[in-house]
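Worked problem 6 (solution included).
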Amino acid sequence: MKRNILLALVILFFTAFSIRSLYAEEGMFPLSEIHKLDLKARGFLIESRDMYNPKGVSLIDGIIDLGGCTASFVSGEGLILTNYHCAFGAIQGVTTPETDYLRNGFFAADRSAEIPAKRYTVRLIESYRDVSREVLAAVSKKMTYAQRSKAIEEKMNRMVVAVEKSNPGKRAEVAEMFRGKTYVLFIYNYIKDVRLVYAPPRSIGEFGGEEDNWMWPRHTGDFAFMRAYVAPDGSNAEFALQNVPFQPKKYLQVAAEGAKSEEFAFILGYPGSTHRHKSSHFIAHEENIRMPFTVDLYRWIIQLKEKMSTDDRGIAIKLSSSLKGLWNTVTRSLGQLKGLKNLHLVEKREKEEESLQQFIAADPARQKKYGSLLADLEKVYEETGKRAPRNLTLSNLLSARISLMMGNAFKICEASYERVKEDTKREASYMDRNFDRTQKQMTMALRDYHEPTEKALLKEMLRRAAAFKGEQAIAGMRYIMTGVDLEKDIDAFLEKAFTETKLKKPEIVSEWLKKNTAQLQALNDPFVNLAFALYPDQRELKEAEKKEKGILDPLLAQLVDVKKEFMGKDFIPDANGTLRLTYGRIRGYSPADAVHMEPFTTLSGIVEKHYAHPDLPSYQAPSKLIDLARAKDHGRFAHPDLGDVPVAMLYNMDTAGGNSGSPVLNAKGELIGLNFDRVFEATINDYAWDESYSRSIGVDIRFILWSLAKFSGTDRLLKEMEVQ
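Solution. The predicted structure is:
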């Protein structure tokens, strides 16, 4: 009888969880899982050792992490193919109203003309190993929750520093695979000299703009080329004229014929983060608190920055990169909110958890071990939710993404406290291995400084921060408040701060980063003074976050354990910025009743949108492209069934943020496209995946090659990629 009850519960759980949801848990395979797959049965024409071979050369030797995006080598001379939006910071960084590479595009006539892409680095995986026992050995039962988190952080830092010391020029990272449970140490080759080679005009690289972002049909030529350089002896080095192109062990072969509908394909890339193993309480927090807060704030910022950009091309260039990121976050968040509501995902997870709780209660041993698990998770998120708006406001106030002055001032303040600690006990940004990069990021960000925008943004954030009262009051705000007239207090502070501060100069930022607390306080800089006033509030917030992580990690580890026991199977860990494999087919979908979306768009579609929306700048393609398209000058890059050059394509693979720039490969491991987005319905992928609506979008390789051959005449790159 008891066995029958348990069997019924398992069936109930599988029904609630659904077979489609199971795909979500197994959609992004880490390196450790690839050799376990029967690749031939799934459609691959290569072996697992062709994909990852620690004792030889394999596909992953050509796949790289490029500053948070994915990219790949496409020649033996370090040529890199990635998304236009991934290279956008490099393009914008060298654009002026005179050169205007955003508007005109860029092509280096030869290698001497390739432009340094500052702040960009290449990470190329060399090896990995499981270090879970070593990491968790740092924890003792006597520790508080916050101490537990700090002990794990310090252990991971010590491991990374030790590995990098014994492997000069390499970068190491310990990635948490299952929270509080499994940890993997990765060693990466780390290339610091990256240069811009080719970027199409923005009217191609972002055709459709925000109107088409996360949408299908899509006609965006989201691609660009860069190149990795090293010192003449092959060692990694900062930019120098004598540096030479990096020679990768592996580069991808281009399949110029592309793919057809329903053909097998796969992706290797670095997806950022997914949350499919979290509880219903986490999802409810995301749906009801964090995402609505983000959408509200970012919409206001977008409106302000777009207004500031209207009449001055120079200002528009300065604000373009941040606007692009803000729009992307807002549109994705709106899609996720819609998906969470349409799928009733919180309610579904709650039902799954009810079945899981019944399974736990059915056995005394399980009840003793896991009985309070779900209730304990609920308590954590209840407590987090009480202070979330206040904490989100404080974090954004001190973020350089909102205000460069306030963000840099706070990092300078925080550095003075962190740099006196033992290196491995510091926050990551201030460790010796990262400090130079932190300094460069802070100083280079000033190139986009626009004071009127800064003032308006900071005024709004200070107003929001001052609104919290009682127990949730942000104590540091007393520095600027007299208690008589808040608006006047804020205006007075801003007038004084922007007049007196020296933080507008990059050299001052660099100099002050190295000062101690007493030296900084003696400067009497208004922004730095406010940062010091707010430091205790932010320190308290970080301690609370560490405590929360210390509580959650063991609970989430238990959640995975009991789910494995219940379902009798292992799970694939959530995406976490480490290399993953996903596979599927080139395939359309039906997002609504009586609607079917085909898997390819074409050059003709660009022409249609161009003429259908004459008043929308985002749909105005270059006249040369329109002329070539209308003349049907396709060269040899037309799709045989469509009679046109395919621009973008759909596939049912499981991708997330960070997969931008990932190569789309055919069954033989040849390049057929470049991943860059998901459809609006698939923004929910971070929380749940379903084959019926989860589609990702890539640039078809034929459009990339056509653009080089016909639109830009860049035969040099075609020859380098061995496309004859």
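Discussion: The longest helix spans residues 526-567.
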